């Protein structure tokens, strides 16, 4: 027996408050976001979340995350026919933190997972199986078996994986909707490492390769339980037009398969994520509404109600709502260059340090009490604590002169950044704190909730084999 293809719920499990979504990039919302950030930095210093003995912390703006989730839902509500089932599944890899997934679940956003760990996080957050999608390119038999037993959606990456799923579906019934990921081969964006629709990308079935299209159509005709088609053309650096081109190619394939099947076999298209984030200012561009409207223009049939939709946005939901706050331990000068030695470096902004030209980050300066610093900008390097010369978050950056005991805030770091610790130099994982602040209230209170406790040095030792110290000597 195959899957029963239970439809996606068209209403999220928890209703959103009726307040209109904060319409970022509206200037007032932008200003509020910056004010909330200033309030949170000040409060984090005053409440001791950072200080001489705890020189680094991550902060997450709860109101900002809620606003982005609401904006995403509103954007697709605007372009879809009434009653169209739409699941927005957050790409867990962008912020693998259970309280974040729980917050998103309450805002009607599900989870896209790509490993046993990510699936476990989504389950710990209480994300229902009907709101969970598994997409990894290298799923083990055990992972597939678990996914099909839970009834979460599964997208097969390739022919060998499909053969495994065939065997599993034959041996046990499943409620999982199952699809195949295609690589529309529309080309790459500005960042090669994040371009998944190049001719030779490792992801999905390469749609334009010889014989691939016919193989795909056959795969569906032979398997009446295959009801979805998936694509994700890339992440940061992809032009929206190219992403839309990938969706259009996937839609065209679904239409062909359904025509050949003589029925609506494919009932849901999963269009992936990848909306780029503006790291240059507080402005949120492009918006979800921009992308949804572009898709409606380019692929109108996608929105006429014949297909359910799944999206998998990650970075665009979280990036702008995270701030990394680091104390300036020392300042110095070398060869005429001012250098601030801070506690934020490669361990929490790995991509920026290793590939600075692709991942520039804004930095804001605060004084020792957490108040925004002003004054004539001078060029300085913002260095991290790790022991290699390239550990710099910014080179020759114009900022108010930093002094010992000040703080630097690294902005837009809520996705793929401080939640993704890299254990270089055995530096501890910083604590992560969610906050709620009221920008209308000058000097108002800021409430914090611990999302992840700061790691202790004892935990670092334990993770590094501290409990088995004679393991090699006794061999
Ligand atoms: C990484 C990834 C996403 C999310 O991409 P973002 O750029 O963070 O929106 C979505 N789907 C798949 C399959 C991915 O690998």
- Tell me the distance between the termini: 51 Å
* C-alpha-based Rg, rounded: 24 Å
Count up the domains.
2
- Overall shape: globular
Strand content: 15-25%
Give the C-level CATH assignment of the largest domain. Answer: Alpha Beta
Helix content: 25-40%
CATH homologous superfamily descriptor of the largest domain? Alanine racemase
User: How many DSSP H or I helices?
Assistant: 12
How would you summarize what this structure contains?
The protein has 475 residues and is α/β, with parallel strands linked by helices. Helix content is 29%, strand content 21%.
Account of the 3D structure:
The N and C termini lie far apart (51 Å). The protein folds into 2 domains: 63-317, TIM Barrel, CATH 3.20.20.10; 320-463, Lyase, Ornithine Decarboxylase, Chain A, domain 1. It is globular and about 70 Å long. α3 packs across α4 (116-125). It has 12 helices and 18 strands. The chain has 475 residues and is α/β, with parallel strands linked by helices. Bound molecules: pyridoxal-5'-phosphate. Pyridoxal-5'-phosphate is lined by residues 91, 93-94, 112, 135, 232, 235-236, 272-275, 312-316.
């Amino acid at each position: 027996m195959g899957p029963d293809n239970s439809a996606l719920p068209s209403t999220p499990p928890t209703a959103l408050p009726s307040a209109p979504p904060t319409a970022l990039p509206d200037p007032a919302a932008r200003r509020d976001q910056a004010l909330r950030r200033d309030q949170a930095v000040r409060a984090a210093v005053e409440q001791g979340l950072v200080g001489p003995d705890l020189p680094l912390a991550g902060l997450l703006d709860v109101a900002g995350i809620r606003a982005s989730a609401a904006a995403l839902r509103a954007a697709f509500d605007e372009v879809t026919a009434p009653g169209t089932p739409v699941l927005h599944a957050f790409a867990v890899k962008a912020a693998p933190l259970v309280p974040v997934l729980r917050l998103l679940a309450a805002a009607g956003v599900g989870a896209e997972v790509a490993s046993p760990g990510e699936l476990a996080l989504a389950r710990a957050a209480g994300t229902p199986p009907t709101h969970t999608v598994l997409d990894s390119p290298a799923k083990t038999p055990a992972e597939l078996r678990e996914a099909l037993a839970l009834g979460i959606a599964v997208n097969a990456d390739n022919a060998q994986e499909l053969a495994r799923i065939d065997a599993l579906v034959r041996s046990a019934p499943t409620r999982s909707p199952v699809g195949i990921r295609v690589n529309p081969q529309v080309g790459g964006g500005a960042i090669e490492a994040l371009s998944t629709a190049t001719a030779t990308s490792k992801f999905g079935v390469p749609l334009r390769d010889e014989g691939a299209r016919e193989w795909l159509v056959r795969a569906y005709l032979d398997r009446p339980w295959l009801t979805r088609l998936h694509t994700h053309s890339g992440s940061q650096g992809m032009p929206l037009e190219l992403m839309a081109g990938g969706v259009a190619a996937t839609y065209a394939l679904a239409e062909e398969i359904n025509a050949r099947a003589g029925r609506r076999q494919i009932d849901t298209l999963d269009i992936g994520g990848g909306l780029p984030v503006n790291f240059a200012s507080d402005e949120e561009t492009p918006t979800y509404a921009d992308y949804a409207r572009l898709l409606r223009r380019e692929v109108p049939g996608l929105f006429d109600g014949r297909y359910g939709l799944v999206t998998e946005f990650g970075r665009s939901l979280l990036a702008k709502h995270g701030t990394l706050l680091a104390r300036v331990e020392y300042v110095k000068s070398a060869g005429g260059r001012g250098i601030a030695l801070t506690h934020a470096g490669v361990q929490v902004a790995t991509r920026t340090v290793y590939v600075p030209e692709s991942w520039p980050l804004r930095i804001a300066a605060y004084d020792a009490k957490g108040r925004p610093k002003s004054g004539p900008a001078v060029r300085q390097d913002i260095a991290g604590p790790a022991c290699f010369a390239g550990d710099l978050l910014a080179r020759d950056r114009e900022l108010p002169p930093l002094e010992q005991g000040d703080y630097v805030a690294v902005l837009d770091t809520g996705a793929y950044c401080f939640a993704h610790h890299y254990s270089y130099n055995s530096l501890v994982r910083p604590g992560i704190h969610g906050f709620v602040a009221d920008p209308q209230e000058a000097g108002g209170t800021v409430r914090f909730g611990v999302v992840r406790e700061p790691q202790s040095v004892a935990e670092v030792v334990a993770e590094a084999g501290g409990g088995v110290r004679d393991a090699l000597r006794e061999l």
